[in-house]
Design goal:
It contains 10 helices and no strands. By secondary structure, the chain is an all-alpha fold. It has one domain.
Length: 242
């Protein structure tokens, strides 16, 4: 299977699982895709694709967005961190970047599997630590377009219900990925990736349809366990690979 077909399969898997679980399309697609292609080559493809799904979800669930949390706590740190990560990306060694992403994936997948097994809740954090973790999540998003693991970790203990929390997070990804896509357009990285973006775009519709179908038929917890186990393997391969 060529790299382009394999990447298409990873994108379909990632967006199907996000439609089932509501989280992690870029984390999954990027971690698997990084086994085949450099991270800096994948980002201008995966980030614009993500705008389609998150834009639809933001519009559909706009009434549930917590604008005070979004504008007062999340976006200031995330935007600053994302800008810093974007500026640092060209100066980082590709092998070091790949291994750093592997560490992030291993931490995230291992933590989530532990929580699922032990049914533990994350502790409530002080405001200063939440803001610091939000800045770190933005940095991760600027480097890997994958700030979700750190942001969810940093926002532990919020009083939002599941629907409002999800709607607010989706608004973050739509905002940041729109900014990253504009940056890729300005620096010239988006134009060469557009044929791939357009070629893979129909997979988002297929993934949404499959995810909705599977969500009604299968247990979400089993899907989460499967994907986190897959990410553990992927993170290990990213660390030990060439």
């Amino acid at each position: 299977m060529s790299a382009s077909y394999a990447l298409g399969a990873f994108i379909l898997l990632a967006y199907t699982l996000e439609a089932v679980t509501g989280f992690g399309s870029i984390v999954i697609a990027l971690s698997l895709g990084a086994l085949l292609l450099p991270i800096e080559q994948l980002l201008p493809v995966l980030v614009p694709l993500n705008i389609g799904m998150t834009g639809y979800l933001v519009w559909r669930h706009r009434a549930q967005i917590d604008r005070r949390l979004l504008l007062g706590t999340i976006l200031p740190g995330m935007v600053a961190g994302t800008a810093l990560g974007y500026l640092l990306l060209p100066y980082l060694d590709a092998a070091l970047l790949k291994r750093g992403f592997g560490v992030l994936i291993l931490w995230f997948a291992g933590r989530e599997l532990w929580r699922l097994r032990n049914a533990t809740a994350l502790p409530v954090r002080p405001q200063w630590l939440t803001r610091l973790l939000t800045l770190g999540a933005g940095l991760s998003h600027g480097l890997f377009a994958s700030g979700g693991p750190l942001l969810v970790y940093g926002l532990a203990g919020t009083t939002l219900d599941k629907a409002r929390f999800r709607a607010t997070l989706v608004s973050v990804w739509f905002t940041l990925n729109s900014l990253l896509t504009a940056a890729f357009l300005i620096d010239g990285r988006l134009q060469p990736a557009l044929p791939q973006v357009l070629a893979y775009a129909p997979l988002l519709l297929v993934g949404l349809w499959l995810g909705e179908h599977l969500h009604r038929r299968f247990d979400e917890r089993h899907f989460r366990i499967s994907i986190y186990a897959l990410l553990l393997v992927t993170g290990t391969l990213l660390l030990v690979g060439p």
